[in-house]
Amino acid sequence: MKIKDDFVLRKVADSYVVVPVNSLTLDFNGVMNLNETGAFLFEALQKGIEKEELVNKMLDEYDVTREKASADIDTFINKLKDADVFE
């Protein structure tokens, strides 16, 4: 899975936002607000990473069970699919 190149992640104060750039500004209205974990996952997905590797990265970074990480990643990925941010 890979995030479209026309979405950028920026840190604004204590929050993270994803904004469209280039031609996507016409199709995508608004911004997405992410917490630190969401930003961590988004950055990994920008590099084109598969779910199993993403789960392993979560386990390395956070104190969470494999089951919880997998479920949370599924939820996050589904929200990103709904927002049409994947290539």
Keywords:
87 residues; alpha+beta; three-stranded antiparallel beta sheet; 4 helices; 49% helix
Order of helices and strands: EEHEHHH
Taken as a percent bin, the fraction of beta residues is 15-25%
Distance between the termini: 8 Å
Biggest sheet, open or closed, and with what strands and sense? 3 strands, antiparallel
Radius of gyration: 13 Å
The main sheet orders its strands as 1-2-3
Number of domains: 1
The total strand number stands at: 3
- Number of helical runs? 4
Shape: globular
Q: How would you concisely characterize the structure shown here?
A:
With 87 residues, this protein is α+β, with helices and mostly antiparallel strands.
What does this structure look like?
The chain has 87 residues and is an alpha+beta fold. Strands 1-2-3 form a three-stranded antiparallel β-sheet. The chain is globular, with a radius of gyration of 13 Å. Helix 3 packs across helix 4 (66-82). Helix content is 49%, strand content 17%. The chain has helices at 24-27, 36-46, 51-61, 66-82; strands spanning 7-12, 15-20, 32-34. It has one domain (7-82). It contains four helices and three strands; from the N terminus they run E-E-H-E-H-H-H.
